[in-house]
Amino acid sequence: MPYEKYSAKQKKIANVAPPFNKITGADFAMLQKKKKKKKKVNNMAKKPVWDKPRPKGLGKSKKLTPAQKAKAKARAKANGRKYPNLVDNMWAASR
User: Fold this and answer.
1) What is the 3-state secondary structure (H, E, C) of 11-26?
2) Could you give the 3-state DSSP secondary structure of residue 33?
3) How far is CA 53 from CA 27, 69, 85, in A?
4) Is the pTM of this model over 0.90?
5) Closest among 40, 13, 37 to 27, alpha carbons compared
6) Does residue 17 carry a pLDDT above 60?
7) Mean pLDDT, residues 78-95
């Protein structure tokens, strides 16, 4: 079918991968690839930080220094908590 006779949705599909004037298997492969990337990003965004695995690039975890512990405790106290939580500790570790 000529490109001019494509519907708006068909034109959108055809413009995903070359040749841009025809619908080919490459167009659908690119759409699937985009769909998979989106899916992974959304799943990670939905999980809270304590349910995510530690990123592999960070290496083995290290203990907080006494100064970092004091910062985490101060942040927890400022936010009305008796003890620092994981987020406070992560914040202190990044300083």
Assistant:
1) HHHHCCCCCCCCCCHH
2) helix
3) 34, 23, 17
4) no
5) 13
6) yes
7) 93
